[in-house]
Amino acid sequence: MYARHAEGFLELEVGDLAFSRFFRLFVIDHDLISFSDVRLNEFPFIVITNPKDASTLLPTKEPINKISTSSHIRFFFFVFFFL
pTM, whole model, 2 decimals? Predict the structure, then answer.
Protein backbone atom coordinates (compact mmCIF):
# COMPACT_ATOMS: atom_id res chain seq x y z
CA MET A 1 0.00 0.00 0.00
CA TYR A 2 1.29 3.45 -0.92
CA ALA A 3 -0.39 6.59 0.43
CA ARG A 4 0.58 10.27 0.47
CA HIS A 5 -0.27 12.33 3.56
CA ALA A 6 -1.32 15.99 3.44
CA GLU A 7 2.10 17.02 4.79
CA GLY A 8 3.73 15.43 1.73
CA PHE A 9 5.11 12.32 3.39
CA LEU A 10 4.62 8.86 1.92
CA GLU A 11 3.21 5.94 3.88
CA LEU A 12 4.63 2.77 2.39
CA GLU A 13 3.45 -0.63 3.57
CA VAL A 14 4.99 -3.90 2.45
CA GLY A 15 3.71 -7.44 2.91
CA ASP A 16 4.91 -9.60 5.78
CA LEU A 17 8.22 -11.36 5.14
CA ALA A 18 7.08 -14.49 6.98
CA PHE A 19 3.98 -15.06 4.84
CA SER A 20 4.31 -13.20 1.54
CA ARG A 21 8.15 -13.36 1.33
CA PHE A 22 8.41 -9.69 0.28
CA PHE A 23 10.88 -7.12 1.54
CA ARG A 24 11.77 -3.58 0.55
CA LEU A 25 15.13 -2.66 -0.93
CA PHE A 26 16.08 1.03 -0.49
CA VAL A 27 18.74 2.83 -2.51
CA ILE A 28 19.97 6.41 -1.97
CA ASP A 29 21.40 8.00 -5.11
CA HIS A 30 22.42 11.68 -5.10
CA ASP A 31 20.04 12.48 -2.20
CA LEU A 32 17.06 10.78 -3.90
CA ILE A 33 15.58 7.73 -2.21
CA SER A 34 14.33 4.96 -4.48
CA PHE A 35 12.98 1.57 -3.51
CA SER A 36 11.56 -1.62 -4.85
CA ASP A 37 9.46 -4.31 -3.21
CA VAL A 38 11.08 -7.62 -4.08
CA ARG A 39 10.24 -11.22 -3.37
CA LEU A 40 12.76 -13.28 -1.44
CA ASN A 41 14.79 -15.73 -3.59
CA GLU A 42 13.69 -14.18 -6.92
CA PHE A 43 16.92 -12.82 -8.32
CA PRO A 44 18.17 -10.40 -9.54
CA PHE A 45 16.98 -7.47 -7.42
CA ILE A 46 16.82 -4.27 -9.51
CA VAL A 47 16.01 -0.73 -8.35
CA ILE A 48 15.97 2.06 -10.94
CA THR A 49 17.38 5.13 -9.21
CA ASN A 50 17.39 7.66 -12.02
CA PRO A 51 14.89 8.69 -13.27
CA LYS A 52 12.98 8.17 -10.06
CA ASP A 53 9.45 6.77 -10.15
CA ALA A 54 7.07 9.73 -10.40
CA SER A 55 4.57 8.22 -7.94
CA THR A 56 7.14 8.40 -5.13
CA LEU A 57 8.54 11.88 -5.77
CA LEU A 58 8.71 14.15 -2.72
CA PRO A 59 9.32 17.63 -4.19
CA THR A 60 9.33 19.35 -0.80
CA LYS A 61 11.71 16.79 0.75
CA GLU A 62 14.09 15.81 -2.07
CA PRO A 63 16.17 17.75 -4.63
CA ILE A 64 14.14 16.65 -7.67
CA ASN A 65 15.90 19.18 -9.93
CA LYS A 66 18.79 16.70 -10.05
CA ILE A 67 16.61 14.37 -12.16
CA SER A 68 16.21 16.86 -15.01
CA THR A 69 19.90 17.79 -15.08
CA SER A 70 21.16 14.21 -14.99
CA SER A 71 22.62 12.71 -18.14
CA HIS A 72 22.55 9.01 -17.18
CA ILE A 73 20.08 6.28 -16.38
CA ARG A 74 21.19 4.62 -13.16
CA PHE A 75 20.09 1.48 -11.39
CA PHE A 76 21.08 -0.80 -8.54
CA PHE A 77 21.48 -4.44 -9.52
CA PHE A 78 22.01 -7.06 -6.82
CA VAL A 79 22.43 -10.80 -7.23
CA PHE A 80 23.07 -13.16 -4.35
CA PHE A 81 24.15 -16.74 -4.95
CA PHE A 82 24.03 -19.57 -2.45
CA LEU A 83 26.89 -22.01 -2.80
Answer: 0.77
